[in-house]
Amino acid sequence: MVDIDYLLSKQSFIELDARERAKSLFDQGSFKELLDPFSRMMSPWLPKQNIVPQADDGVVVIKGTIQQKTVVVISIEGMFQGGSLGEVGGAKIAGALELAIEDNQNNIPTTAILLLETGGVRLQEANLGLAAIAEIQSAIVELRQYQPVIGVVAGSVGCFGGMSIAAGLCSYLIITQEGRLGLNGPQVIEQEAGSNEYNAKDRPFIWSITGGEQRFASGLVDAFVEDDREQIKQQIIGFIAQGIPAVQRSSQAEFYLSKLTQVDTSQQISPTEVQELYRGEKA
After folding, report:
1. What percent of the chain has pLDDT over 90?
2. What span, in angstroms and rounded, lies between the C-alpha atoms of 259 and 261?
3. Which of 74, 70, 68 is nearest to 22 (CA)?
């Protein structure tokens, strides 16, 4: 039976922009935005290509508390350039993570939460974006030794490209049914392999492969939640309380590689087969 009261009380997380998503997680009045739009930290490269830049370069960094625990929330605006990362936005994320590392080294426990709405590297700033994402990945690996790094993939852009690797390095990953997670986006795969291999317009097919429910069922994310602000916040609180996981997912490379060697690449694998492939004990 559908719980009408619950449906009426739900508040969408996906419908919020990056800044509103981040603010919705904090204790009231506890947060401060770092390098906000008034700092005018925008890409110097986009105007050279006749692209209007954004004053925060599509990345929001806010520090505060969640249930009196210090956190930094880094939120990517999927509506600006598809959430792609260039020099400035990437530097903001890497810098925020490095500051969190310093906090922990100075006995100030600080958890990082990444709200990932991104297609990966910004094509207009390719090499600069790649360098920034490498710094982000390195910082995640160092920070998660002190406190969990929590990633959230809510939708509707999803998380692809180099930042999907960053997502895979997170201590915990949360995803909604609307969210998607994969190394290459559907359009990229279709462009390289053809629509017979991967039809980017076939939405049910796309979600059956990279969608939130499938990724959770395959054990590639840790929590599958509804598009509800409070439910996402409570799941984050739960993972903060759990602390550092006993085994980081990215340290189980041998387990995942052994599974991939079992795939018959001569035919399209089904979503059910993917789930069955990854079931079983992990290293």
Report:
1. 77
2. 5
3. 74
Concatenated DSSP letters of 99-152: HHHHHHHTT---EEEEE--B-SB-GGGHHHHHHHHHHHHHHHHHHTTTS-EEEE
Question: Mean pLDDT over all residues of the chain?
Answer: 93
**What does the pLDDT average to over 217-225?**
96
Domain boundaries, the chain: 11-181+221-250
The fold for domain 11-181+221-250 equals 2-enoyl-CoA Hydratase; Chain A, domain 1 (3.90.226)
How far is Cα 179 from Cα 151, in angstroms, rounded to an integer?
12
- Mean pLDDT of all residues in 120-127: 92
Alpha carbon distance 74, 78 (integer Å) = 13
Looking at residue 257, what is its pLDDT? 92
Is the Cβ–Cβ distance between 91 and 56 less than 8 Å? no
Q: In terms of DSSP H, where are the helices of the chain? A: 4-9, 18-23, 87-105, 126-143, 162-169, 186-193, 203-210, 212-217, 229-242, 253-260, 271-278
149 — phi, psi (to 5°)?
-105, 120
150: left (phi over 0), alpha (psi -120 to 50) or beta: beta
The one-letter amino acid code at 250 reads: S
Q: Which two tokens stand for residue 33?
A: 């935005």
Give CA separation, 54 vs 12, 22, 43, 47, 51, in Å: 25, 18, 8, 10, 10
153, containing H or E segment: strand 149-153
Read out DSSP for 58-80? TEEEEEEEETTEEEEEEEE-TTS
* Residue 224, token pair as written in the block: 């599958």
* Residues with Cβ within 8 Å of residue 244, at least 6 apart in sequence: 144, 145, 146, 147, 148, 171
At residue 282, the pLDDT reads: 47
